[in-house]
Amino acid sequence: MKNLLLVLIGGGFGSVARYLLSYFFTKNNATHFPWATFTANLLGCLLIGLLFGYIQKNNLQNETLKLLLITGYCGGFTTFSTFSIENIQFIQNQNYYLAILYTLTSIFMGFLAVILGFKIFN
Questions:
Q1: What is the mean pLDDT of the chain?
Q2: Does the pLDDT at position 97 exceed 90?
Q3: Among the listed residues 119, 122, 117, the one whose alpha carbon sits nearest the alpha carbon of residue 69
Q4: pLDDT tens across 47-66, in order?
Q5: 10, 72 contact by CB (below 8 A)
Q6: What distance in Å separates the CA atoms of residue 10 and residue 35, rounded to the nearest whole number?
Q7: Which UniProt keywords apply (predicted)?
Q8: Residue 31's pLDDT band (boundaries 50, 70, 90)?
């Protein structure tokens, strides 16, 4: 029960942070590119890399920290389902260039963000 509560709390905070990020970008962005989802996924990748690197460097076996921050917060903050539907909408609108660009840059930059976060502590 404790583990479920940790994931719930972390996920709740991550979801609220994601909503606020989306609200900011929707209010301040007139382009068709989904900057909020892109940014949330890259920040989530960087954060999970930082957390993983920190935990590994300090040899922490703290399951509470992992459940709260990695599974909960990062899981609630990142948005693969939103990323997927945005790509479907690009394809439906025959905007294949943006679909390919968004997919490739999200994957490539996501990997780089995880590596960067991990390397900071190693």
A1: 92
A2: yes
A3: 117
A4: 999 998 898 888 888 899 89
A5: yes
A6: 23
A7: Cell inner membrane, Cell membrane, Ion channel, Ion transport, Membrane, Metal-binding, Sodium, Transmembrane, Transmembrane helix, Transport
A8: confident
- Estimate to the nearest angstrom the gap between the alpha carbon of 65 and the chain centroid: 18
Q: Where in the sequence is the domain holding 91, given as residue range(s)?
A: 2-121
Q: Name, in order, each residue with C-beta under 8 angstroms of 108's C-beta and a sequence gap of 6 or more.
A: none
78 carries a ligand binding annotation: yes
Residues in the chain: 122
| 76 is known to lie in a ligand binding site | no
Between 29 and 43, where is the model more confident? 43
Report DSSP state, residue 32. Answer: S
- Rounded to the nearest 10 degrees, how much is the dihedral formed by the CA atoms of 72, 78, 79, 80? -90
User: What is residue 47's predicted lDDT score, i.e. its pLDDT?
Assistant: 93
Q: How many domains is the chain partitioned into structurally?
A: 1
Q: Which amino acid is at 86?
A: E
Q: Are 7 and 76 in contact (CB under 8 A)?
A: no
**47 closest CA partner among 28, 22, 24, 72:** 72
